[in-house]
Design brief:
Elements (H helix, E strand, L loop, with lengths): L3 H8 L7 H11 L3 H18 L8 H13 L11 H37 L46 E9 L6 E6 L5 E6 L3 E7 L6 E8 L5 E7 L4 E8 L2 E8 L5 E4 L7 E6 L5 E6 L9 E6 L6 E4 L6 E6 L5 E6 L2 E6 L4 E6 L9 E6 L5 E6 L3 E6 L5 E6 L5 E6 L5 E6 L3 E7 L5 E8 L6 E7 L2 E7 L5 E8 L3
Antiparallel strand pairs: 1-28, 2-3, 3-4, 4-5, 6-7, 7-8, 8-9, 10-11, 11-12, 12-13, 14-15, 15-16, 16-17, 18-19, 19-20, 20-21, 22-23, 23-24, 24-25, 26-27, 27-28
C-alpha cells in the first residue's frame, strides 16, 4: 500500500479516485486523525468553491459599454453634411450669451435700486413688534426601495415597554467519536440532539431531565466512506441523514430508538446538499447538487406514506443551501444563490421567487418560516438577514448583523424575536415589531468557530448547538435577563 506521504497527496483528489483506491485510503483514515482532518478540510474547501457564482457583467454594464463604443466611433460625415449642425450649435451659443447679458442687466438694476435706498434719510418705522422668523418646514424625499424600511409609529404619551436584554451563556459540552463534526441538528422540542462526523459516525443524544443535561442514546454508522452533510428530525421520532457516497446521493431515515433504518429512498438521486422534514414528519424535502457543471440542481419531495414515490419539483437554481416548510406544511422553500423559491406542497406547483433589493446580490445560506407562517427569513453569506411577507412577497426587513455568514436562524413562538448564529461564533437576538424596525437585544461572540450549528426557541429562550473541529458539541443558551 502507499506510504503515509503518498496518501496525503492522494487525499486532495479523493473524489476522483476509483472505488478501490478510496477503500484503501479509507482503511488508512481509520487510524490516522491527521489525514482525516486534511480530507475534511479539502471537502469543505470544495463545497465553498461550488457556491461561488460565475462572474459575468450585469446587463446594464453591457448596455453602457455599447453606448460608449458607439459614441467614440469616428465621424465619417462630410463637411457639407455637418454644415446645418454647425449653425444649430452657433445659435445655441448665441442664445446662452443673450441669457447671460439679460441676467447681468437685471443684477445691475437691482444693485442701483439698493444703492438709492441707502442714500435716503432714515425714517423711524411705525410698525408693530417684529415677529421672529419661523423655521422652514423641512421636506423629505421618499426613496423607491429603502435599504432598511423605516416607518416610525405615532408618538404616544406612554412609551411601550422595552423587552429585556438577553444573556447568552454556555451550558455544557458533549463528546463522542466524531473526529470533525460535519452536521448537527436539534429536535423541535429540544429533547434530542444529533451530530455526524468525518469518520462516518452519527451520534444521537437524549435529554435526561434538566434542559442542560444530555446523554448519548445511539451511535451508528450510516454508510462507510460516505460524506454526510445534513441532518433533520421529524415529529415521529425519526432522524434523516443526507450526503453523498461518491457521486451518488445518500438519504437514510433512521429510528431515534435504536438508530436502525426505517425508510429507504426509492430511487437514485445526485449528491445531497440539504434536507428538511415537514412539521408533521410525513414529507422529506431533499436538495441535490447538479449532476454536471453548468446544469441545475434538483429539489425532491419524498412522501413517506408512499415511500415508493419521489416528486421532482421544477427548479432552476444550482446550489441548494437550505430548505424549510411553512408551519402548516402547505409550502416548501429552497434557498439557492441569490433567490428563495416557494412551492405548494400538495400540487408541487411553483408559486414565486423572493428576491433581494435591486442592486444587491446576496448568497442565501439559511431559511426559517415565522411561527405564524406570515413571514420567511433568509440569512446570507454576507451576514445579512432578509425577511419577506409570504402572501405578497414584499420585503419587510433587511438587517445587517455585522457578522460573517449566517449559518442558522429561528423565530420565536410569537414571531416577535429572531435569533441568528454566524460562522464567526456570534449569537444574536433581534426584536421585531409592527413598524418594521428591528432592535438588538444582545449579541455575543463565543469562543468557538463552529463548522456546523443549529438553534431553536424553547421555553427558557434559545438553545444553540455548535459542532466543533475537534469532534465536540457545545450547547449554548440565550434567555431574557429577568429569567
Amino acid at each position: 500500500m502507499n506510504t503515509h506521504e503518498q496518501i496525503k497527496e492522494l487525499i486532495a483528489i479523493y473524489d476522483s479516485l476509483s472505488r478501490t483506491d478510496r477503500q484503501s485510503i479509507d482503511q488508512h483514515l481509520r487510524s490516522c486523525p491527521i489525514c482525516q482532518t486534511q480530507l475534511a478540510a479539502y471537502k469543505k474547501m470544495d463545497a465553498g468553491l461550488e457556491t461561488l457564482l460565475d462572474p459575468k457583467p450585469a446587463q446594464h454594464m453591457r448596455t453602457d459599454f455599447y453606448v460608449r463604443l458607439e459614441s467614440e466611433r469616428p465621424n465619417q460625415d462630410s463637411f457639407w453634411s455637418t454644415f446645418p449642425s454647425f449653425f444649430k450649435q452657433l445659435s445655441a451659443y448665441a442664445a446662452q450669451a443673450g441669457a447671460l447679458v439679460i441676467i447681468a442687466i437685471v443684477v445691475f438694476s437691482m444693485w442701483l435700486a439698493m444703492r438709492s435706498q441707502t442714500e435716503q434719510p432714515a425714517v423711524a418705522p411705525s410698525l408693530p413688534a417684529a415677529v421672529p422668523d419661523q423655521p422652514a418646514t423641512p421636506t423629505t424625499t421618499a426613496t423607491a426601495v429603502p435599504t432598511t424600511p423605516d416607518i416610525s409609529p405615532a408618538p404616544t404619551s406612554t412609551p411601550p415597554p422595552q423587552p429585556p436584554v438577553w444573556n447568552i451563556n454556555q451550558l455544557t459540552s458533549l463528546s463522542g467519536q466524531l473526529n470533525v463534526v460535519k452536521a448537527i441538528s436539534i429536535s423541535e422540542d429540544g429533547r434530542y440532539l444529533a451530530a455526524t462526523g468525518s469518520n462516518f459516525n452519527t451520534i444521537i443524544w437524549q435529554q435526561t431531565g434538566n434542559s442542560d443535561q444530555y446523554q448519548m442514546a445511539v451511535q451508528t454508522e450510516v454508510a462507510y466512506g460516505a460524506s454526510l452533510n445534513s441532518l433533520t428530525f421529524s415529529a415521529q421520532e425519526y432522524l434523516a441523514v443526507g450526503g453523498a457516497d461518491g457521486s451518488d446521493g445518500l438519504v437514510s431515515v433512521r429510528s431515534l430508538a435504536n438508530g436502525e433504518p426505517a425508510f429507504a429512498i426509492p430511487t437514485q438521486i445526485p449528491a445531497v446538499e440539504s434536507i428538511a422534514f415537514s412539521n408533521s414528519g410525513k414529507v422529506l424535502a431533499i436538495g441535490a447538487k447538479p449532476i454536471e457543471n453548468g446544469q441545475n440542481g434538483a429539489v425532491y419531495l419524498w412522501f413517506l406514506e408512499y415511500s415508493d414515490r419521489l416528486y421532482d419539483l421544477a427548479f432552476e437554481g444550482k446550489v441548494i443551501s437550505d430548505l424549510a416548510f411553512s408551519p402548516d406544511d402547505s409550502l416548501v422553500a429552497a434557498a439557492s444563490n441569490s433567490e428563495v423559491s416557494l412551492w405548494q406542497v400538495t400540487s408541487n406547483e411553483f408559486l414565486q421567487t423572493l428576491s433581494s433589493i435591486d442592486g444587491q446580490t446576496p448568497v442565501f445560506s439559511s431559511l426559517a418560516f415565522a411561527s405564524d407562517g406570515q413571514m420567511i427569513a433568509a440569512g446570507t453569506r454576507q451576514g445579512e438577514v432578509y425577511i419577506w411577507e409570504v402572501s405578497t412577497g414584499q420585503l419587510l426587513y433587511r438587517i445587517d448583523t455585522e457578522t460573517r455568514a449566517i449559518q442558522n436562524l429561528a423565530f420565536s413562538a410569537d414571531s416577535q424575536q429572531l435569533a441568528t448564529v454566524s460562522s464567526d461564533g456570534q449569537v444574536t437576538i433581534w426584536q421585531l415589531d409592527s413598524t418594521r424596525k428591528e432592535r438588538l437585544l444582545n449579541s455575543r461572540t463565543a469562543d468557538w468557530l463552529g463548522l456546523a450549528t443549529d438553534l431553536i426557541f424553547i421555553d427558557e429562550g434559545v438553545l444553540v448547538a455548535v459542532g466543533m473541529a475537534n469532534g465536540q458539541v457545545q450547547l449554548w443558551q440565550a434567555a431574557p435577563a429577568n429569567n
